[in-house]
Predict the structure of palmitoyl-CoA hydrolase.
Amino acid sequence: MFSFNRDSKRCIIPCIALVGSLCISYTLSYKPVVLIHGIFDKPYSLDSLMDRIGEKHPGTKVTILDKFHGWKSMAPVWFQVKSFKKLLIPIMEENPGGINVIGFSQGGLVARALIQSTNKHNVHTFISLSSPQYGQYGDDFLRIFFPGYVKETAWRFFYSKAGQMTSVGNYWRDPRHLDSFLNYSHFLPEVNNEVTTSNTIKFKKNFLKLQRLVLIGGPDDGVISPWQSSHFGAFDENEQVIPMQNSRIYKNDSFGLRTLDKLCKIVTITIPGIHHLDWHKNVSVIDDYIIPYLD
Ligand SMILES: *[C@@H]1O[C@H](CO)[C@@H](O)[C@H](O)[C@H]1NC(C)=O
Ligand SMILES: *[C@@H]1O[C@H](CO)[C@@H](O)[C@H](O)[C@H]1NC(C)=O
Ligand SMILES: *[C@@H]1O[C@H](CO)[C@@H](O)[C@H](O)[C@H]1NC(C)=O
């Protein structure tokens, strides 16, 4: 039903117990979990995920960062990151033993930026749940959020001052206009260290403090495009997908992806049959692919 990344055989982690093919490791208490929502969510959108974590791991402190719901989720990503950070820092400080973070959809990009821009972060595991980690480029998505736009020409708006005032513009990655993407997009090229900024060194250093990065996505998502962006894949100019390991950001190790991968700290999970709006609600996704990484 699902597959791990090709390197997973090389990355065998010692198991305390094997149940079927699942590696179970025991822990005395669970790290607190912080959830970051996606675009156009409601304040209660992640409640089912929160409740399920509480059922399977009783006693876990789960916090949903309660900001930027509905239309407000279209605010520029850096603006959101700055504001979310004020909620996240106290949680980190109250839990010196570390926390785990789950970001859903756009929330996974917000989460990555929070991690990379916070020097003293103590995020142990970051679970990116169907997030466009290497950008978004597709008509299905536009039809929902920007009716009237088509992917071929949307860059004219997104790579403008007005377009950059929207979160989507910040991670729209048009594979035929990468020059403009690099020049005008004020978010994704920066966290990817594809452009050099005063934060380049810090972004990589902080990313490398992660103990585990879990990338979850699947071919039936229907919104994230290409769906492999959830695994740091991206379109080339012919809209063929370049897998993470062949991408420039990986080969250059621009913000630490290759290093983290070589250290066996990246888990890539592909699950078919899940639509974008079901990732955080489907109980088997939560039980089989999220809970095992929350220890
Ligand atoms: C991007 O910026 C570079 C350097 O300033 C410039 O030479 C190039 O023409 C720009 N490209 C686009 C598409 O704006
Ligand atoms: C990767 O490194 C090469 C060679 O140093 C450079 O030309 C290219 O711009 C870099 N790419 C990224 C995405 O940083
Ligand atoms: C959850 O996803 C699986 C596919 O992995 C599917 O078979 C199952 O019906 C889904 N469950 C619900 C409640 O939608």
